[in-house]
Structures
1.
Amino acid sequence: MRTGTVNLPLHTGKCPKWLFPRMKKLSGVISEMIVDEYGSEEFIRRLSNPYFFQALSCVIGFDWHSSGTTTTTCGALKESINSLNLGITIAGGKGAASRKTPSEIENSQLSISTQKLEKLKYASKITAKVDTSLVQDSYNLYHHVFIFTEKGRYAVIQQGMNDHYARRYHWLSDNVGSYIEEPHEGICCDKKQDNVLDMTSKKSRENKSICLDIVKDNPKHLERYIKKPPQMTLDSFSEKAPEITFNPRHDIIDMKKINIQTLQKAYEIQPENYEQLLSVKGVGPKTIRSLAMIADIVHGKPASWKDPVKYSFAHGGKDCIPYPVDKKLMDNNTQILRDAVRKAKLGKKDRLYALKRLTNFY
């Protein structure tokens, strides 16, 4: 997995009304060119590449360093691509829109079997849960976009945020050998974080195995890791507050009763592997973290605590960074590309080949 960093500070407000329609048109014609020339499968492969996605966002006029780069670009792509007959559907989005992903997959106009649709819905669900529970980096997911083709291939673009910055997660079905072990195409962020629990790392493989054994062996005995409040004594009523003491060996574990109850449900199911354990309803970041710590402390199998985190100007940016958007240039370029696509469909590909040769200058 290639790595790199980029600042994505949280920007408030909405995309200007004059900009979004232009982004929609330009992203649509660029998408159409790529699909016509290379196919729908190649197009989603490119979107799964964080560097291509970032460049595309900048080409269509959005800020290179804004959290809205992800949400607005995906919104423009969704509206344009879903209105074109490219053999691609984009589902999901920001906030409440992300929760509509399963129904949007089901209602896709693409010719996909029921079996493949169920696999796509599962992929949408499990990728979101992995980036919520297995990569614990203090960024909370609020954006989930699922892009898929008639062949059942997909790309996922997710984004999480903390107090000041955003982090973007990219997936591509072709390269997902396992949902729970180094499945990402790339993770973009402002900087690496300290103390990030990465259960997707190969270095966490033994830890995951121990966690599964703990659950299948009946997690009832994990109640010893529940922190209990201090007992009240006569000293408790003095001016001096009672001291709270825990066994230092277990002090970092925060296993709650609700975690035990969830694991009891998992025990009754007897998951065959760690992915099935993760899929159990109620198993979230706290449960995963507690199990990982217990596996480390009791059995000496540590998980990875290394952050797995892994950029193009053409028309300016909406906040005048690096310079104001040139509306006329943006509209002209959209028309040039649109004309090239139309002529290529008529067999006149000279202009399309000329545009293609421009890549030699990069």
2.
Amino acid sequence: MPIERLIDIYEELARRGRLGAGGPTLCVVAAEFIGVSGAGVAILPSGGLMTSLCTSDGVARALMDLELTVGEGPCVDACSSDVVIAEPDLDSPQAPGWVSFAPLALAAGAQAVFGVPVRIGAVRLGALSLYEQHTGSLTESQSSDAYLMASVVGRAVLAHQAGAPLGSIEHELARESPFDYAVHQAAGMVAVQGAITVGEALSRIRAHAFATEATASALAGRIVFREIVFDALSREWRETWTTTR
């Protein structure tokens, strides 16, 4: 189920955060979660010039640099698309549009490449880039996971843009505190517990945190460690342990 896969994503991101894992965690987790050789994230600021947010490895970085240099490739196309851009065999491309990118991508070590749009509503934020070292299309489950991962990337992009200048589209969108993977992991768990949407779960977490004078992160930690649960029948929070003085 999508909600269970979403929990898996946030659980892994939160785990790496607790371990203090450095580097491009978001892109590394994207590649591992979807099951591809590597991944990258490109963002599209309000000025329209695509830039790189992160890449999972050297090949992904080389592919991203290629797209930024030649102005063509899966991310470039996905930034203006509503569907996954796929080229399962760069040796025999289905579409002849990437005249410069395709041969250079092959030389960099990719045999197949894909671009997944990253959007929040109607607003285009960028794209998730994927590559494989062998030819072949994404499976149905990989495509589903790619869209799910793109939704996580979208929220991370908003947090990344939180420091954008006043008046830019990033500033208008980024109204949340810095992205906290643990809060979203907890929201996935609450959504399952209460049979509600992740959005409603986030709202309930924030409301309960405010009511109990706690931070959302602190409450999320208690939810993750199952010290407190959301009861589906009573629609109330329930402590699963008590402290003694």
